[in-house]
Each structure stands twice: as structure tokens, then as C-alpha cells.
């Protein structure tokens, strides 16, 4: 709250009062602080592992039989770090709505078919039944191909990681010619998300404490990238989940000619 007298020379005839609502500012500063704390925590964990393992190797404290095992751990932790750094860079670019992301017209149906083929062997290995339902005709959208690809990959990754033994995943595209819109739908028969946690899963670094998600090395950035990518494409996100039954996520994007 700020107040300034209208006339300073003679006795003031009135004053201007300025009321600023800084709720949003305080909120975004709090989010930024939390974000930095999370980033440093997430980076420190793999770094500590890397320096610990390499120190043991350097000091000759690892038996010949275990050397490869230790090197593998160092390697996987550094890959994890590099993934995380890439995700963070992408998120901050998306945040600033950077024009580094060039939109172009491309066939999302073709992209989804390729992604389905790429993920098929992975789901087979995990004994998950992966089915798809794509239209025959091309479906063009105006977007950033690699971001759309990453968005869908993140959703399929989640459907795989948070599934149950012998569970299933369906990946489909539904065109709505009237409203010039296409819906990307990924549904799984996985562990589901508790109703009260649903609004929070799109926050950066948010992971469900009690769920099986803690068994995975995820960092809770996947759905934040999904949300930002959807926003950049004016796409809608719809999530429907039932604990112990499964999750369905729908992304609706406008089609182009
Ligand atoms: N399909 C799903 N079924 C059940 N829970 C899910 C599903 N998708 C996401 N979740 C929950 O939401 C959390 C956030 O998901 P998100 O993809 O953002 O992060 P993550 O998978 O933990 O890590 P990563 O950054 O590697 O994607 C997950 O940790 C998990 O608890
Ligand atoms: Mg994920």
C-alpha cells in the first residue's frame, strides 16, 4: 500500500493511494525458491553417488570383479543427471515461451504410429498389453514436432512405469472433424492416482509419496513438461484416474489444413 500527497507546495489537496496485489508475485517467488531447492537436491543425489563410487575406484578399494559394476553405476548416474539437466533446460525455455521452438505443420498420426512401434518392444518386455487405434488418414497439426513427441513419450512412460503386472495400455487418436480437433488418448490399467493428488501431479518435482512411483528413478518433471507443451500449443488436458483401476489422459489439439 503506497500513499502520495497530490500537492507538495501548499497544504495537500488530497492524496493518491496505490494498492498493489502482490499475492501472485509472492507465490511465484515461493515457487522459484522451491524449484531451486528441488533442482539442487535432485542434482546432488547422483553427484554424490558419482563422486563416492569414483573415489572408491581411485583408491583401489574395489575388487576386480566389482569394477565393471561400479563403472556402470557411475555411468547410469551421470546419464540420469544429464537427462535431468536437459529436462530443466527445456522446462525453463517452455516457461519463457521462447521462440526457439519453431512450429510447423506435421502429421501427428504418423508420429503416433512411429511412437507406438518404438514402444511396442518395451511394453512386451514388461509383459504389458499395448494396443493402438489410429485413423487411416493423415492428421496435420501446427506444432513443434519434438516437443509433441516428448509430451506423448512422457505419457507412455508413465503408463508403463505406473502399471500393474499383466496390465494394459491403449494409445489412440480421435479426430473430431466438426470442431477441427484431434484427441490424443493414453489410458492404462495401472495403480491410478488418488483424487486429492490429481491437481498436483502436473507440478514440477511432484511425485506421489505413497505410490509405487517411489520405486522408480523418476524426478517428477515429465508431467510438468506435458503441461507446458500443451499450453504452448493451446491444447487441453483432461485427466481421469481411479486409484487401483487406472488412468486416462486426453490431450486435445486443433488440427490444421
Ligand atoms: N499413469 C499414471 N498412473 C499412476 N500414477 C501416475 C501416472 N502418471 C503419473 N503418475 C504419478 O504422478 C507423478 C508425477 O509424474 P511425472 O511424469 O511428472 O514424474 P515421474 O514419472 O515421477 O518422473 P519423470 O520426470 O521421470 O517423468 C508420478 O511420480 C506418479 O506418482
Ligand atoms: Mg513420468
Structural write-up:
The protein is of the alpha+beta class and 257 residues long. The chain folds into two domains: 23-95, Helix Hairpins (Orthogonal Bundle), CATH 1.10.287; 104-254, Heat Shock Protein 90 (2-Layer Sandwich). It is 44% helix and 21% strand. It contains five helices and nine strands, in the order ββααβαββαββαββ. The chain has helices at 23-58, 64-95, 108-125, 145-161, 222-232, and strands at residues 2-5, 15-18, 104-107, 129-133, 140-143, 168-176, 181-188, 236-242, 246-254. The strands form three sheets. It has a five-stranded mixed sheet, with helices on one face. The protein has a two-stranded antiparallel ribbon with strand order 1-2. Helix 1 packs antiparallel against helix 2 (64-95) and helix 3 (108-125) packs parallel to helix 4 (145-161). The longest helix has 36 residues, at 23-58. The radius of gyration is 24 Å and the shape is globular. The model has no long low-confidence stretch (mean pLDDT 90). It binds adenosine-5'-triphosphate and magnesium ion. Residues 154, 158-159, 162, 188, 190-193, 201, 206-208, 211, 213, 218-224, 247 line the site of adenosine-5'-triphosphate.
Amino acid at each position: 500500500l503506497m500513499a502520495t500527497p497530490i500537492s507538495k507546495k501548499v497544504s495537500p489537496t488530497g492524496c493518491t493511494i496505490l494498492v498493489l496485489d502482490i499475492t501472485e508475485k509472492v507465490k511465484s517467488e515461493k515457487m522459484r525458491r522451491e524449484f531451486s531447492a528441488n533442482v539442487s537436491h535432485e542434482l546432488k543425489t547422483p553427484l554424490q553417488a558419482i563422486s563416492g563410487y569414483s573415489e572408491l575406484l581411485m583408491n583401489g578399494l574395489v575388487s576386480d570383479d566389482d569394477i565393471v559394476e561400479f563403472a556402470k553405476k557411475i555411468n547410469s548416474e551421470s546419464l540420469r543427471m544429464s537427462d535431468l539437466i536437459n529436462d530443466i533446460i527445456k522446462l525453463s525455455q517452455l516457461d519463457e515461451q521462447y521462440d526457439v521452438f519453431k512450429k510447423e505443420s506435421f502429421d501427428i498420426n504418423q508420429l503416433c504410429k512411429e511412437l507406438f512401434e518404438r514402444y511396442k518392444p518395451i511394453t512386451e518386455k514388461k509383459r504389458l498389453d499395448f494396443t493402438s487405434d489410429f485413423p487411416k488418414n493423415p492428421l496435420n497439426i501446427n506444432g513443434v514436432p519434438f516437443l509433441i513427441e516428448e509430451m506423448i513419450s512422457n505419457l507412455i512412460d508413465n503408463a508403463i512405469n505406473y502399471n500393474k503386472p499383466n496390465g494394459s495400455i491403449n494409445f489412440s487418436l480421435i479426430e473430431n472433424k466438426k470442431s477441427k480437433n484431434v484427441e490424443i488418448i493414453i489410458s492404462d490399467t495401472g495403480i491410478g492416482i488418488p483424487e486429492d493428488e490429481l491437481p498436483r501431479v502436473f507440478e514440477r518435482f511432484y511425485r506421489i509419496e505413497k505410490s509405487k512411483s517411489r520405486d522408480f528413478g523418476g524426478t517428477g518433471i515429465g508431467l510438468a513438461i506435458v503441461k507446458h507443451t500443451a499450453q504452448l500449443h493451446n491444447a487441453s488436458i483432461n485427466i481421469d484416474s481411479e486409484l487401483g483401476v487406472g488412468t486416462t489422459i486426453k490431450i486435445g489439439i486443433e488440427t490444421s489444413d
